[in-house]
Amino acid sequence: MPNDNNQDKEPGLFVSHNENNASVAQQEDPIAGTSNTTTGQVEENASAESTNLPLKKFIEPTIRHGLMSIVRSSWLNVLLVFIPLGWASHFVWNPTTTFILNFVAIVPLAKLLGFATEDIALRTGEVIGGLLNATFGNSIEMIISIISLTQNLVIVVQASMLGSILSNILIVLGMSFFCGGLRYKEQRFNITAAQTSASLLFISVVSLLLPAAFYGSTVNAETAAKERSDILNISRATSIILLIIYFAYLVFQFLQVPVEAFKVERQVSRIKLFNNNNNNANARDEECIAPETPVEREQAKGDEEEESPSMPWWMAVLLLLIITAFVAVCAEFLVPAIEQVVEQWHISETFVGLILLPIVGNAAEHVTAVTVAYKNKMDLALGVAVGSSMQVALLVMPIMVIIGWGIGVDMSLFFNVYETAVLFASVILVNYFIVGGQE
């Protein structure tokens, strides 16, 4: 008897409703495969067999199922106890303890942030999911930078922006390639989306050369104040242009480009379909998704079967907002604590901005990118790593310049020659790695 009752099925899973599609498809063309079969008929049958999947109905997860999925998402959730400890230490204990506790508290929050973003990406797609994750991940850099600007810590803000870009395109992207390579011999990704983000990142980095080039060409400036004023004017004009480019990119991403333009280019194997009637060597190449080894085939099959949203969409969005707020509070407590640690540990402000703050701010991106890369979702991993760097360069840095302009802080896009050269070389290296669409 047919059973249409799906209430006993586990929420969040796809339930089959048409188990006899294969036999029906075979009955539609009984003469397929005979000596009189044409190439078009063979191609049609092969396509029907390769795409002959049961019709599936998605059961929306319940609230209870979503809560259990959040609790069981990672063993790192046991570290959530450090959140109240880190907040309390800001008012009770010394700055070093506050720094350590809040730093540890961000680790499970970063994991939950990636979990919520991945759940939303299952509904919106990997490209939009990567853009969403990069946006929420950069909220930490935004809050830390605004707090630092209000305290006139321009060097810390500039170093943190530079460190955030470098850590994303070097550490996060490198670890994603490494962890994905541990499981898969070869991984492919969407060349269009990746090169779009990389090209925009390159444009933003080139724009950072303008203040440095102007500084190097004005050694005979009348006064140092006049030179700083000119650099500020160039930086502010450049920031406005970068913001326009970023919003134009959003329009391109969501309104102008059809969804088909961002389909993932998977690894393919070629199947030659011959015309037995003509008995010649004319062949047609048919693309089909096929992992290289049986192990990878089982892994990919398992991932596809298990990948379904584990919570209602509104719960995933609410979790994303709450976790982002918690991470922002922890990061906000880190700022005054780090200032005291600088004095006690005898380290420079540049080290704090270039090394420490990017580690805190990019914890969410690092965990998420490595996790999805291990699951062979390289589009989402690149969207997190390269997309986050692109958003820092096109959105966060220009906004910091505009905010500094509004509150009377001389925030500019001027970096010294060494910092500019390192950033430029890193972006060139990333463009070289992703140009082929595989790693």
UniProtKB/TrEMBL annotation:
<keyword id="KW-0926">Vacuole</keyword>
<feature type="transmembrane region" description="Helical">
    <location>
        <begin position="350"/>
        <end position="373"/>
    </location>
</feature>
<dbReference type="InterPro" id="IPR004713">
    <property type="entry name" value="CaH_exchang"/>
</dbReference>
<dbReference type="InterPro" id="IPR004837">
    <property type="entry name" value="NaCa_Exmemb"/>
</dbReference>
<feature type="region of interest" description="Disordered">
    <location>
        <begin position="1"/>
        <end position="48"/>
    </location>
</feature>
<feature type="transmembrane region" description="Helical">
    <location>
        <begin position="380"/>
        <end position="407"/>
    </location>
</feature>
<feature type="compositionally biased region" description="Basic and acidic residues">
    <location>
        <begin position="1"/>
        <end position="11"/>
    </location>
</feature>
<comment type="function">
    <text>Has a role in promoting intracellular calcium ion sequestration via the exchange of calcium ions for hydrogen ions across the vacuolar membrane. Involved also in manganese ion homeostasis via its uptake into the vacuole.</text>
</comment>
<dbReference type="GO" id="GO:0012505">
    <property type="term" value="C:endomembrane system"/>
</dbReference>
<feature type="transmembrane region" description="Helical">
    <location>
        <begin position="413"/>
        <end position="435"/>
    </location>
</feature>
<feature type="transmembrane region" description="Helical">
    <location>
        <begin position="313"/>
        <end position="338"/>
    </location>
</feature>
<feature type="transmembrane region" description="Helical">
    <location>
        <begin position="99"/>
        <end position="116"/>
    </location>
</feature>
<keyword id="KW-0406">Ion transport</keyword>
<feature type="transmembrane region" description="Helical">
    <location>
        <begin position="155"/>
        <end position="179"/>
    </location>
</feature>
<keyword id="KW-0813">Transport</keyword>
<dbReference type="InterPro" id="IPR044880">
    <property type="entry name" value="NCX_ion-bd_dom_sf"/>
</dbReference>
<feature type="transmembrane region" description="Helical">
    <location>
        <begin position="191"/>
        <end position="214"/>
    </location>
</feature>
<feature type="transmembrane region" description="Helical">
    <location>
        <begin position="74"/>
        <end position="93"/>
    </location>
</feature>
<keyword id="KW-0050">Antiport</keyword>
<feature type="domain" description="Sodium/calcium exchanger membrane region">
    <location>
        <begin position="97"/>
        <end position="254"/>
    </location>
</feature>
<feature type="compositionally biased region" description="Polar residues">
    <location>
        <begin position="17"/>
        <end position="26"/>
    </location>
</feature>
<feature type="transmembrane region" description="Helical">
    <location>
        <begin position="234"/>
        <end position="255"/>
    </location>
</feature>
<keyword id="KW-0472">Membrane</keyword>
<protein>
    <recommendedName>
        <fullName>Vacuolar calcium ion transporter</fullName>
    </recommendedName>
</protein>
<dbReference type="GO" id="GO:0000329">
    <property type="term" value="C:fungal-type vacuole membrane"/>
</dbReference>
<feature type="domain" description="Sodium/calcium exchanger membrane region">
    <location>
        <begin position="316"/>
        <end position="434"/>
    </location>
</feature>
<keyword id="KW-0812">Transmembrane</keyword>
<keyword id="KW-0106">Calcium</keyword>
<dbReference type="GO" id="GO:0006874">
    <property type="term" value="P:intracellular calcium ion homeostasis"/>
</dbReference>
<feature type="compositionally biased region" description="Polar residues">
    <location>
        <begin position="33"/>
        <end position="48"/>
    </location>
</feature>
<comment type="similarity">
    <text>Belongs to the Ca(2+):cation antiporter (CaCA) (TC 2.A.19) family.</text>
</comment>
<keyword id="KW-1133">Transmembrane helix</keyword>
<dbReference type="Pfam" id="PF01699">
    <property type="entry name" value="Na_Ca_ex"/>
</dbReference>
<feature type="transmembrane region" description="Helical">
    <location>
        <begin position="128"/>
        <end position="149"/>
    </location>
</feature>
<dbReference type="GO" id="GO:0015369">
    <property type="term" value="F:calcium:proton antiporter activity"/>
</dbReference>
<keyword id="KW-0109">Calcium transport</keyword>
<dbReference type="InterPro" id="IPR004798">
    <property type="entry name" value="CAX-like"/>
</dbReference>
